[in-house]
Amino acid sequence: MASSTTTMITTEDLPALFHDVTPIPQDEGPHIVCRIDYPPEFTIAYDYFRALSAKDEWSERALQLTTLCLQFNPANYTVWHFRRKCMWALLMKEDKSIDLEAFLVNDLTLAAALGGENPKNYQIWYHRRAILEYVEQQTNKELFYTFCRRELDYTAEVFQEDSKNYHAWCFRQWILQTMKAPAIWQEEMDFSHQMIMDGDVRNNSAWNQRWLAAHRGQLTTPLALETAQSEADYALQGARIDPYNECPWRYLIAILKEQCRSSTMEEDKRTWLLQHYLDHAELVKEVLKEADKDPEACPNLSAALVDILEMKGDTEALTHAKQLMHYLEHDIDPIRARYWAFRSKTIEQALSLKSD
Amino acid sequence: MPSASNSQKFDRERQIAYFSTCLQQLPAPYCKLDTNRLTMVHFCVHALDLLGVWDEMEKQNVKYSSFVEANNIIEWILSTLMHIDNNDPQEAGFIGGTFLPPHHKYHHSHIAMTYTALCILQTLGVDVRNDPRIPQTAIIRTLRRLQQPDGSFASTIQGDGEHDLRFLYCACCISYLLDDWSGIDIPRAVSYVRNCRSFDGALALVPHGGEGHGGSTFCGVASLVLMNQLYVIGEDADWKASLLHWCVTRQQKQGLQGRPNKDEDTCYSYWIGATLRLLGYDAGTGNEDDVLCFLDHAELRSFVLSCQHPVLGGFSKVRNTYPDVLHSYYSLAYLSLSQKYRQDTQMKKDLEGVSLKALNCTMGIGQASILAEEGFRPLL
């Protein structure tokens, strides 16, 4: 039995399809607030929904009704919830006449169709997740992985339209973490690399994804030093493409901070690491010089230098940091003048403690 | 320098017209917010509150024509309250509209609607802690059922939906308004917030890898403030520094962006502006280290005002497009917040002597709705 969710009904079909059902109108009470100018078809569809869901009829025709209702309002979480109840009930039927995979793929297709004009709708994204959870719980690992891979491809499609779609990135992360397949993280490194270097080096979501992938999904475990260096080098590579871009600098600082916080890091290794990346961050100024830009006037570069110098923490480093902050405050990042003044004071306090 | 060419003057009359019209009637596209109508009411009521309209009507007997009366709003909201005897006597709360009849099988409360309902009622003069029409205990009991093992909150007891930092914030606001924290396992909630920390120090909507975002950053920080746990950031010098840096770096040209390298959007002037204000406040000493001033308010105000619609009123997300209720409210909320920074002459010109009521930036509603004299714990 093919799923009839592909048969899209219209409001005109409703009286015949639900001849035995009395629609329930919305009762907004005597004083309506924020009255919505509902289109007439919307009202009809939802009058039937109120009636059918009150009876808890989980059937093919109920499913069709929810399809119609969701076209009018894809954010109605009650309709989605009721739809899923219909779906699971139909799939659980004794005769097992429904092809589970086809049935669910159908729903994912519907969700994608609704998602087209509603890319930031929480309920639609959640529906995709609910389907995957169902497959994970009710079928086997192989089928679950098949669905996961298709969904990863789907998010990649969505990124073609909007490479920063927050919901898509969250969903992608959820899939990866739920799959519990260690090998997937290297693939994700490649994916994030593609999104950054081939896509948009300024895509913060992609850099964020790289952070997760580099950690193999284990954010509470700091990177091994070798991996940290590799990632720090990658960040500098990104910074050289556009030194004004905030992302690679913040990524670099996060890598270094994580290493420095790590209790297993020896003092001399730490010193070496910070000095090494301070020097290499400075070298990014060459890119600016080659482009005839003032190498001292790149706020995100200078801000990164300031952070590394503060991490170093010795008198010379702090003095240098203070100088950089002065330029940031007065010349190159005036919109944040008060912030840099505040940070200068903090450095001054640290310096005066050192000289005591 | 603020660009005088695209900065408009704040138009109080037009803003009143916008919000009062929306409070009566929303156009057809809002049918996609049918289940969220209560949040639209929340924005309109609180906008009119910040504009001083309810006070004028009540205390100065100012008459506004074709206005929705406060009492009617209260009645409508109470009609969305789940009846305790409906299906599950252990559950109570509000639903976002009248799209389901009160005794309907699927009529369940939604945490964000309970939050907004209580805020609106409180602002309109209902004593939410004591009013017998409100099932305070059952609402708190419901919160306990909504909290998940990881510390987050589901929005409905069916649990068939996303859990994220927004609903934790709602839970905290509800607990604060009803002055009852027995519905929240605070240590679990705090650990959820911690797990939402992103690599750059901001807070994501979901834990374990989510991207730092202005809206979720506010939800997390404000939740910590409400739970009296802001010290978890305060005592982590690294986190505090990176979060502060992240917030102030969201101002690129004029307005604030919600994430690095995204477009400026008016609502972030509130989300991030309020976050900064909260971060700078030391609950222990009661002192405010004014880190909110780390933003350039002349530029920010200029951006927000340039998004004021010259005909319809309201504010849009970005310049040169139509306003929507959410961005209109948060723009107004930011303008209230920024009143502190009136020193510069541009500010005086921008707001043309108009005063907005003070905003409580933790709750996102007027300060006057939650006075210490009425037993509310003082909050920024």
Give the helix/strand layout.
The complex is a heterodimer of chains A (about 350) and B (about 375).
Chain A: H1 14-17, E1 35-36, H2 40-54, H3 60-72, H4 77-91, H5 100-117, H6 122-138, H7 141-161, H8 166-179, H9 184-199, H10 204-214, H11 225-241, H12 246-261, H13 267-283, H14 285-290, H15 299-312, H16 315-332, H17 337-355
Chain B: H1 12-24, E1 25-26, H2 37-50, H3 53-59, H4 70-78, H5 111-123, H6 136-146, H7 165-178, H8 186-195, H9 214-226, H10 231-234, H11 237-249, H12 267-279, E2 281-282, E3 287-288, H13 297-306, H14 325-337, H15 345-351, E4 359-360, E5 365-366
Antiparallel strand pairs in B: 2-3, 4-5
Helix pairs in contact in B: 1-2, 2-5, 2-14, 5-7, 7-9, 9-12, 11-12, 12-14
GO molecular function, one term (chain B): metal ion binding
EC number (chain B): 2.5.1.59
Family (chain B): Belongs to the protein prenyltransferase subunit beta family.
Architecture overview:
- Chain A: One of its GO terms (molecular function) is CAAX-protein geranylgeranyltransferase activity.
- The complex is a heterodimer of chains A (356) and B (380).
- By secondary structure, chain A is an all-alpha fold.
- Chain A contains 17 helices and 1 strand.
- Chain A has a domain at 222-356: Protein prenylyltransferase (Serine Threonine Protein Phosphatase 5, Tetratricopeptide repeat).
- Helix content of chain A is 71%, strand content 1%.
- Chain A is elongated and about 85 Å long.
- Chain A starts with 13 loop residues before the first helix and ends with a helix.
- The model of chain A is unreliable at 1-5 (pLDDT under 50).
- By secondary structure, chain B is mainly α.
- Chain B has one domain (4-371): Glycosyltransferase (Alpha/alpha barrel), CATH 1.50.10.20.
- Chain B has helices at 12-24, 37-50, 53-59, 70-78, 111-123, 136-146, 165-178, 186-195, 214-226, 231-234, 237-249, 267-279, 297-306, 325-337, 345-351; strands spanning 25-26, 281-282, 287-288, 359-360, 365-366.
- In chain B, α2 packs parallel to α5 (111-123), α2 runs parallel beside α14 and α11 packs antiparallel against α12 (267-279).
- The longest helix of chain B has 14 residues, at 37-50.
- The radius of gyration of chain B is 20 Å and the shape is globular.
- The chains are: A mainly alpha (356), B mainly alpha (380).
